[in-house]
Design goal:
- The protein is α+β, with helices and mostly antiparallel strands.
- The protein has four domains: about 1-65, Winged helix-like DNA-binding domain superfamily/Winged helix DNA-binding domain (Arc Repressor Mutant, subunit A, Orthogonal Bundle), CATH 1.10.10.10; about 65-185, Udp-n-acetylmuramoylalanyl-d-glutamate--2,6- Diaminopimelate Ligase, Chain: A, domain 1 (3-Layer(aba) Sandwich), CATH 3.40.1390.20; about 190-310, CBS-domain (Roll), CATH 3.10.580.10; about 320-435, Hotdog Thioesterase (Thiol Ester Dehydrase, Chain A, Roll).
- Helix content is about 35%, strand content about 25%.
- The chain contains 15 helices and 22 strands.
- The strands form five sheets. It has a six-stranded antiparallel sheet. The chain has a five-stranded mixed sheet with strand order 4-8-7-6-5, with helices on both faces. The protein has a four-stranded mixed sheet with strand order 9-16-15-14.
- Strand 5 (about 100), helix 5 and strand 6 form a beta-alpha-beta unit.
- Helix 2 (about 25-30) packs across helix 3 (about 35-45).
- The longest helix is centred in the middle third of the chain and has 20 residues, at about 170-185.
- It is flat.
- About 30% of the residues are buried.
Length: about 425
């Protein structure tokens, strides 16, 4: 039977897109406490089922698929620009296709403004009116108001008119950054992207006999299986090591390892992979917010996903991407790399930031390891035991030396120099993975 929390989430999903909801309404209609309703609405917001806007409330929005995640709703625009909704609140759930900056003559402006657009403009009241008639929402910059006629039109066409205190340039930058962030999120592989769904997952019930484990092991050749209770919540995991000393008639619950390591649907694949390596496990149960089993991922699933992702074209460039693109092989010197410190890589004092520095070290070590074998590597430990400040625009040289390499791990020593002087030393340990 579904919990009250799950019932609220299911109820929210049944609501029409654009419908306004509140803690009090949910509590009253589903006969739950306001605290339970509040927590469920917050989770719905995390799942992008609803959007909460100050002075407006919480509205049901269309759940976005990952391939469409870069499209923002007008409700999200309100939150991005700290805006105030002047009219057309019933249209806040709609997504915009593009935004247009109104920095031209009215007639020219309207040539670029189409249905589904967002016109960003100051206190040009005719432009507000014409945009709404063309099917576009309006974002009024500079803290200006809109006319009563425009507000009525906004309500009639169900197209939001939003006011923000920021100027047009700042607003465009903020929206661009939000879209860019969404593109980066779109590229990050999450567990939900590679999950083996529950209907294809083999698992055990806590009251099953150990003979059931042996049957599944023979059928699938898998070494371990998650264990759930009667409500579907995961309570343990059973592996071949756990059943040593137990008979076929003993219950699974008696032999299982309790409180197993689990991940959520929103955990990144890279994070899950690193944890599996660190803990020395081959299978990770995936749970939802209520602790119920959603499926499992294996180490092979993680490796395959990471290798596939590495071959995909990038749409959003992260700081790591920028740093890696700056690394160049030093002419006439095997394995040595050079790197110029750019403004994006510095801290408030104008020297290279610690984050940029560690990325440079790990990438340099990775490039050295790839010359020795074709295995994937995961950084396990990084120790910087000498570091001097490196200033902006400095051209530094990075020399990795492989100290030890085995079938499963490797140690790499790195020396960083500037103008012939050593400015950094570090030791990195990697886990090596078969492709």
């Amino acid at each position: 039977m579904a919990t009250k929390h799950e019932q609220i989430l299911d109820y929210i999903e049944t609501l029409e897109v654009g419908e306004k909801i509140s803690v009090r309404r949910i509590a009253k209609e589903l006969q739950v406490s306001e605290g339970t309703a509040y927590r469920a609405i917050k989770e719905a917001e995390n799942k992008r089922l609803v959007s909460t806007i100050e002075r407006v409330g919480t509205i049901r929005i269309e759940r976005k698929k990952k391939e469409n995640i870069e499209r923002l709703t007008y409700a999200e625009i309100v939150n991005i620009v700290d805006g105030q909704v002047l009219g057309g609140r019933t249209g806040l759930h709609k997504s915009l296709t593009k935004f247009v900056i109104g920095a031209m003559q009215l007639e020219d402006m309207m040539r670029y403004t189409e249905a589904g657009n967002l016109l960003i403009v100051g206190n040009r009241y005719k432009a507000h009116e014409y945009a709404l008639q063309a099917g576009a929402a309006v974002l009024v910059t500079g803290g200006f108001d809109a006319s009563d006629t425009v507000k009525k039109l906004a309500d009639e066409y169900e197209l939001p008119v939003i006011s923000t205190s920021y100027d047009t340039f700042t607003v465009a930058t903020m929206i661009n950054r939000a879209i860019y962030d969404q593109l980066i999120k779109k590229e990050i592989l999450l567990i939900e992207d590679i999950l083996i769904p529950l209907e294809n997952t083999h698992f055990l019930h806590h009251h099953d006999p150990i003979s059931r484990y042996r049957e599944l092991n023979k059928e699938t050749t898998h070494g371990g299986f998650p264990v759930v209770d009667d409500s579907g919540k995961i309570i343990g995991i059973l592996t071949s090591r756990d059943i040593i000393g137990f008979s076929n008639e003993d219950s699974v619950e008696k032999a299982m390892t309790k409180d197993p390591i689990t991940v959520s649907l929103q955990t990144s694949v890279a994070s899950a992979g690193h944890r599996m390596i660190w803990e020395g496990i081959d299978l990770l149960p995936v749970i939802d917010d209520q602790g119920k089993l959603c499926g499992v991922i294996s180490r092979q699933d993680v490796l395959k996903a990471i290798q596939t992702a590495q071959r995909q074209p990038q749409q959003g460039e992260t700081i790591d991407d920028i740093i890696i693109s700056q690394l160049q092989m030093k002419p006439h010197e095997k394995l040595s790399l050079e790197f110029r410190v750019t403004p994006q890589m510095t801290n408030s004092y104008g020297s290279i930031s610690y984050g940029a520095y560690t990325t440079i070290l790990s990438e340099a070590a990775n490039s050295a390891l790839k010359t020795k074998n074709r295995k994937d590597s995961v950084l396990e430990n990084l120790t910087i035991y000498f570091l001097k400040p490196v200033q902006l625009d400095s051209l530094i040289y990075i020399k990795p030396v492989i100290l030890d390499i085995s079938r499963k791990s490797a140690k790499v020593d790195i020396e960083v120099s500037f103008e012939g002087e050593i400015v950094g030393k570090a030791l990195l340990t990697f886990q090596l993975l078969d492709r």
